[in-house]
């Protein structure tokens, strides 16, 4: 399969998601998070971040069932679309091409159901919009300035990584155990920690979409605003510092339960020999550098994805070990210091701060 | 009792705590948190914050059992010590005065066991040290610049508040329920939200001592450093935004389990008619504005306190309702929106983010 | 004169200024700086900061000539107004009392022309408004949270300090030279570096009014917004770090040329023996800790003040040395290192970064 | 010349500079700025940023005369070195290749004198060192986390841009006037605003080398520390917000006068159709978004560069118009609002805040 050349992907560009109530979603993404409206009509909202110059980073489309319609990547040139077609046809995937584009503002596009069951899109042609980087009069305290990455749930992470490496992605970090099980992997095209990540679990599902802020206080401002609006229950996890990626993070749930991350300050990964970081699944600081426990819903929940006809993709169960069960609950454990065999201090016993105490 | 004039208290000034291993405590308070060493010897460490000009804000004294030896307040003038003596003698409290001071660097001092059983100290005379506010070459990313407040656990909060008001303190905020139970109260002399707070529980015990930073990122830097040192299990709760006080906070536990808060950005309270803020005990945003659950140890644990002879004070149990039981667990509940009677969204059910689901 | 007791002043509370175009001033103070409108009508705007609970911190009143009508302080009790009357009458000052208040929202008030020629006001009674500290949905990136201080221009600083000390103020910092000339002094009631400062120059004039933000990035956000609005010429000086006060600062000029400071992170000064800081007028880091030169307009410009009938107060010229002439220009000098007698590095010669090169 | 393929450059990687006193330079770059020492000996210091994994981002080599010995770029593969040789030989440039590398830690390298007279280096092979991104216990308040870019002074900017575009760089922003004169241009390989920029002036000279921080307060912390060390005269310009690049910036001068920028928060530029931003040379916000004037030394000063034998390269004078003369001084002008023909407000006249008033 190596003779089929992969398209040259620039970056994750936008996600199209199905929401059940456009007005509620608008309140969340526009009024609260401050995404910029490029276009809106009865059927859909097209939103972008302050530093974006392409038409949109997020499409909210009205539908019956919350789901993800497309994970969309921008490629380097129009010719890369032909490569995308060939790449997926060689893998026996369903491939559709629409010279008019599948969403407003985007031209010639290819959509496929990829080998893991995800609806992937590739495009080059796109309408430009004003980059609002300098429009500080329009910025809010929690300004979202860039789409940073996607995160996908799939049962077989190593298989997904193999395919994504064929597609030209590089692994920057992953979570493993000493028996060789891989629990999650982060992969990039643009030189950040990731454009997408694969999280082990029943899939295909979407784990989250992530937007970047400039500074950490911007993320705190989003939480403060949600508190003021009495919508703090939209906060699922964080804010905290990731071990993986070293970024400062926050996870929200939108009105349909779609998970949105706000993220800032990972590191440059653009060199071919960029050292990949491998985290032990039992390391209590891998998911949160401060050892704050991951809430169970963060492990278990995800958004269903659609096929190219708009039907919900069936789920495949994960057969490999589950990260949640490996690290919390009766059979799991995690450590702060690998060498530490001592008892916990008395004041720590019975707390859920350590995974094995939950 | 109103005819006995209270001493004019300026502010909480320092705490003297007993630690079991000076070297370990030094590593925590000096090497990690960056408190400035004013003096150290075989028996004790005298530490201050970067913006302090008095000899110390914290004394760590070596002993067998972790405990608090004194909550010490500075008064406006030497004459206020006489008032302190009279104030406590009128209440039948044990009172000792030491013209040489009870700790290094402090002159004429009064120590009492107060009506709630706490070892309180008052002093005016103190050695000055260089205020290191401008010494930015010595500041660390998580610079602690000021002692902000104490927090005490006591079974009968209204009784404690009455006594503290006699002593000249003013309530700025409290947590109550509709039946009139008071769960906690915040009281100030200097015009911040508090110099000390009363937290309902078995007492007398010390809940925490709090130091201030300038900005929120300074608090994040402390967590990041603890992660780098593989000491993230010192983080008990947070960082987060308090509802009460509106401050950004973090709770740590020192090597003996003493609780230390790092705190920034509450508000001015110095006017006599400063509006007190009353929080409903069931309001899910009272303790954390973002609705993040309070870890149980934060409710249950505290440091014992000493009498004037260095013996551990016996505990009195709280007979009023417990905040933890009122808000989490089988019988308790809390809400994000008072008017909200709907079911939680499906993705929220089964999570411990909401107190009543724990 | 010491037998006349001074009123117990809590803090600087608001300033009343005359502006020539209410719409333009509203655009500056409300649309750009985000002050909260408590009330507005054809004649005046009443504005407060996000954390304020009294009716206003700034009154903008329409008039022919830009000027300051009142520097207003809040006192601890209604009885302090009687003391204020007595205090100023004993000094032969013009004193007026209005039980209805001189501005909307304020009750019984005393206005005087003080010994330096400034229109000072004192009040206790005031309408309360909602403290918007928790209203993060309404905060902007450059949120002004508190009125911090006034700054006044007067020809004889030591004389002004003597009078202010009689009035109960304490000096926290000043700028002097080795011959004993005092160029400026900072004085406080609330325990910050100042409620007002005296700047040497032809007076009485108002140098600036200062509002506080929580963090330094809030001040940067104000500049970024002014740039986006193509109003960066409202920025007169900074942002930078003060030597005096250790605060991070910015100076703006409003549409009438009134100077507004935005200020954050000075230090606690509430102890009676708080060490005063004396700066050498030749110290290049006194006005800006980074040695950035002070623009000449900052030294020379100020707003005229009114008497109690609304007439412009005449100016008295400063006869003592001028700080600007002492430190910049042909005859002045300033140093970065007091001991440094070497030549400047070649790349520094001819630059205006050092005052003596201007 | 287009048939000769350019090497695939990843990013600016390090600069080698000649300093006259290693101890003084170490104090500046290591003790003050906190760069990490990878290696040091009698002749040279090899320094890297906290997030770097290659051997160094800066080499300080002891010598008689301050100068720049190499602007070094990393290429994607060993084969790109052959392309680099061919690329420069086709242009008649002096080319040297050293399989052992020209500096410690770097393997096979090519050095050339490029068509503008600059000593450029290309390498792929390099020793790895620990990426200290997570080593927060070692970070200082002003942590430099990444080498961001170089900036070069050359007399003919359009000619330099043509050559750099042949070399694979893309212009992201530039400064022009309506007559077509180009004053400066910013060009990138990695998807930030630049890996290097061309500044019009007598050249070849090095204008500055720039390191990135995570947040704006990190840059402020560097200034605060320089103040505390009484070295604030190392601050040449800023901190401020650039118009070009939208980054927050600071310019320092090292003990030899080499200029160092600290820089944070520009934007993603990695798409081929990334919109280039053209600034009018008369726009007062182009160099500083807040309109703060550029100090003349910033326009006039730069470091000389060496040829491959270590001799100072001769200067070629700029014949095109000078940005400084076009915008400040008797004949120049700049505007805050292009449409603004009004007189300045009175309080602005005579100030040097506006370029045309200097």
From TrEMBL, chains A, B, C, D:
Taxonomic source organism: Corynebacterium ammoniagenes DSM 20306
Biased composition regions of type Basic and acidic residues, renumbered to the chain: 345-358
Source organism phylogeny: Bacteria, Bacillati, Actinomycetota, Actinomycetes, Mycobacteriales
Stretches for region Disordered: 330-358
Cofactor or coenzyme needed: Fe(2+)
Record-linked NCBIfam families: HpaD
This protein's UniProt keywords: Aromatic hydrocarbons catabolism, Dioxygenase, Iron, Metal-binding, Oxidoreductase
Similarity-based family: Belongs to the extradiol ring-cleavage dioxygenase family.
EC code(s) of this entry: 1.13.11.15
SUPFAM superfamilies: Glyoxalase/Bleomycin resistance protein/Dihydroxybiphenyl dioxygenase
Superkingdom per UniProt: Bacteria
GO molecular function: 3,4-dihydroxyphenylacetate 2,3-dioxygenase activity
Residue ranges occupied by any VOC domain in the UniProt entry: 11-125, 146-265
Name the UniProt record assigns to this protein: 3,4-dihydroxyphenylacetate 2,3-dioxygenase
